[in-house]
């Protein structure tokens, strides 16, 4: 594959280094020194220049590129770069943006700005934080269909109330589907009467709310409930998005922001969040507002040093879990070494997301389970594909492939799959497939 | 965990315990008087015992780890005012004489005293011993002292009530910086309070020697205790009307001073009288009294049913208007007999109140002044939509948040007042005690705004004992709520106060 | 002295409006023809009004209004309408025993009509003393004032529509103007059409009740007359016994229309466009409906338990559930929305019920309705702001905006609403005291409830009060000074205080 990466910052470098071994990678950066330096660090071709111009893009052979990844620090640059790339060829374009406004525009009409896939750094990070907060019991969580659907894998332990129940009993949620059950490393495709035993690993697919609800059933002790106190420190874009996503799953977080105008803006846009205007490094304030009794503290200030300070303070006050946003990837280990529970680096998150994307072929999005025994795929159905126009039960009866359809999204709404559900073009189907059957399924799509 | 209490209530309880443990000191005064006149000391000994026991019990709960934040302070203020009144009620019940022997009445009398209201449920003043009557006066004086501490030291820290405006008001950067330490500031203010009380004793006593033998040392002390505190109890059934006109005139300036900002008085004593004299709130406060007194005087003069003579008319008009506006609640005559016009004026006067940072109650002049200026600004911006115009008091800009607070406070007061009036009417009707609307409005205003006497049966020479017991219980609560500026009590009723 | 206001522009535009006021006099003229009554009164009135309009128009033939001129124009327009509306009263009453022949009384009646107050000084309300035509004019003034004379002008006069948004904002009841369509004239037309539609519907329903034999007294004249005063929350009736004169069926039909009149008319516009959920999800509408239901229920229980004297117009209520509910619903609907109709003499009810009704009078209708009073949306915001104050006093660092139906309410707007509410209460209280003093001066002793309700019923554009001002009483006995104050209160109450007072302020302050 010929891949062009525009922007050689931390994100671009990270992507380039993970792709360099298998693919033909060209990296473009405005800074000639950076370009020169990278040439020796990685096995890639580097070009110095403005990646938005067609001259430079032609030099990078964008015309024959399979994929163009624009990941500079500037949103507009990335969008223009993708737009330019579309005039030169038809490679798949990926843009990294910070602003959620661009993401909204793009979600409304996919393909806007000539971007085929958009990764919003701050939103991605916030989603990551919320997943870590919401599902501490899950071994693996992945979002599908733009976050409408979640796949999660849970380990059922001795104390779990779910142990001993049948799948039918455990699945109390309208939009939740059990797609797989691993027992002693063997996968079975569960049916209504399949029993769940302690030590099993259950894979479920459904709306984020139902997955959250199921997590509470599996591990009521550790999974946070609505009454839990979550304090977000710092009203940066990441802090704002984190609070917004927490509100969406019915939490009422508290958000501490120092700047009066920003605090007002946050308070207006976050109806279920209590916004406080104060310097979070003031220990007296933290004590007065009983931040020590919070269950989770997220530090999302713009400076790593302050995040570190507040994380340590929160830990000392006795907060159960502290999640810190760390801007510099080098500090992630430092944070975790001194006892911060989870340190999240936005650039790493973005790079991972983009890299994950480059693996895909027909499937838009995949997750690999349990040593590659099974994969969860997201397929977008096209007009002519073999799955369209027939009820699910018919498809299942016809093929030998072992798969379970976990969820369907149609026009950005989640549809719970039933035997008589008829698939339509444009549907996104999230399904679990045994690794052996993957090619059978993808060939049908 | 929504059920956990997140208030450091132990700290609040501890502070309350400290205050209760100090109560035997003021209780010693009526005790001495009881011994001097050979009356039973039992009521006061009982109260001393209870306050010591409660104080010790509360202090044992204290947790030195917890510090006193705003929430804890609200809780403490609410508890202190309520429990001190409860202990203050003990002598009345133990003495067991007259209407106040009933616990609800005793609590009414004590709460009315502590909140410097001055509404009484006593029917026959002559039944009661001198020591009990003096305790009524002492508890009012304590209430005045308490509110000064609250206004100058505590509430300004919390940014609640009128106190937050004291900074603008006193034209200093920070009230607490009169002197470097809060405790020193508080001591200065109390010093002024003690000094004024002492001065009143001397003036009343000397005038008593000169013109009126009824104003002996006992009455001089008793009235000194309640005039500077703008409280209003008097051991005389005819209130200040029992004394010579000259003494009535002498009481007026003490009431006026009691309702003037003590911070500004401090400046005036220390050679900066212009701060007081050029203060807009002071002008408003004096102006309101002068206007109302003039209207009342004219009204009395024109009314054929009242014949006081020229001096008497002016004296009664000035005395009663000052008494009502400063929220004292003395009376020089039974104004219930006056024409409705004059009574309406007194009723209006109830809502004004004195200056912020004094012993006065009611809504307070500064709030009205700020509200008026802000109205004017609204009208101005309706014509000039782009104009940016801060509200200024005595040349200093008033913070927009403070204006919002003031509006909220005014509206809240008016709504509570109105609801209370409805409760009084409805409850009276339920108990078949016919109370007319004006009486109900007057009684609601006078208790909630801590003034004292109202109209009709509850007039200055009347008693609140005519209201049904339930009404009196509601009044007790509202005197309490009104005195500590509503917010400290109302926040206790919100769920988030306790849990988040 | 410079006024800082281009008053010529305001007055010039006023002339345009006055011209058209003459046209509205055609309605009583037609009635007079139909009943064979004296038509000269209205012909002369029309001529006078039209002549004045043409004359005043010349002050500034090409008026251009800024914000100040708009405020002045709106204030003057209402004053002018009220003043000119007196002409038929005075002409018709000249030389007779009619109380409205006196200019102050005539102005009171006319202002009470245009501002949809419904307080009357007409001593003897009957067609024996006053012509059908004159009483119809009285009803018509209410109908014209209901949706707002400025809104009407914007809807039909292109000259006025130019500055429409500014003008409508000054007149519209409630804290803010809702523009439904890009063109303000279209918005005004839509509102008037809805208003007109409801009026026609009510008149038709009432008349069909008559035709069906369920309402013997409700002839065509009465049907139209009551249509004219129900939708504007007016309260005038050509019958001395108000709606109590008619059958229970009529009363039941009027109740929903009074309720409708207290709803924001913009919501009906949404309903007509098939967006009924906009109405159902509107925070103010929900509170309005809830408050009506709860208050009606409480009052019905009070009446059922015997709060009204045993022999009542419209039926005994004690122990009679049907009558209790009807009387409660009618009186609450009438007083809360500031209509002022009555089917019972609530001035005779006991203190419980009266104090309760006084409380109801404070509430007011919805913003954007034809109702008067403080308006529900303001109370909602005041309550929310107070709750916020309590919250922030325990948590001093919390930033918490006030929300209404999901939207954030601007801090300036909150301050404006709080200051309006306080100003309203202050003006009401001061006026009550003034009225009490003024009546004492001439030797009339008012009870407190009477003086309070006189002030509240006029500033809130409600109409009847308690005691002698009850629904079947009259304001006639007040001294002229008190009547003039009440005329002023009705005027500023209808325009929600600020436009009128701002003009006074800008007269002094020319910066």
From TrEMBL, chain A:
Residues 1-119, 227-344 form the RCK N-terminal domain. The keyword Cytoplasm does not apply. It holds the Pfam family TrkA_C. The keyword Signal does not apply. Keywords: Ion transport, NAD, Potassium, Potassium transport, Transport. Gene3D superfamilies: NAD(P)-binding Rossmann-like Domain, Regulator of K+ conductance, C-terminal domain. Residues 139-220, 364-445 form the RCK C-terminal domain. GO terms for biological process: potassium ion transport. Signal peptide: none annotated. Part of a potassium transport system. This is Trk system potassium transporter TrkA.
From TrEMBL, chain B:
One of its GO terms (biological process) is potassium ion transport. Keywords: Cell inner membrane, Cell membrane, Ion transport, Membrane, Potassium, Potassium transport, Transmembrane, Transmembrane helix, Transport. It is found in: Cell inner membrane. The keyword Transmembrane helix applies. It is a multi-pass membrane protein. GO terms for cellular component: plasma membrane. Pfam families: TrkH. The chain crosses the membrane at residues 12-36, 42-61, 73-94, 138-156, 188-209, 246-270, 282-302, 345-370, 406-426, 475-494. Belongs to the TrkH potassium transport family. PANTHER family: TRK SYSTEM POTASSIUM UPTAKE PROTEIN TRKG-RELATED. This is TrkH family potassium uptake protein.
TrEMBL record, chain C:
The chain crosses the membrane at residues 12-33, 39-59, 71-91, 143-162, 190-212, 249-273, 285-304, 355-381, 417-437, 484-505. One of its GO terms (biological process) is potassium ion transport. The keyword Transferase does not apply. Its main location: membrane. It is found in: Cell inner membrane. One of its GO terms (cellular component) is plasma membrane. It is a multi-pass membrane protein. Keywords: Cell inner membrane, Cell membrane, Ion transport, Membrane, Potassium, Potassium transport, Transmembrane, Transmembrane helix, Transport. It holds the Pfam family TrkH. Belongs to the TrkH potassium transport family. This is TrkH family potassium uptake protein.
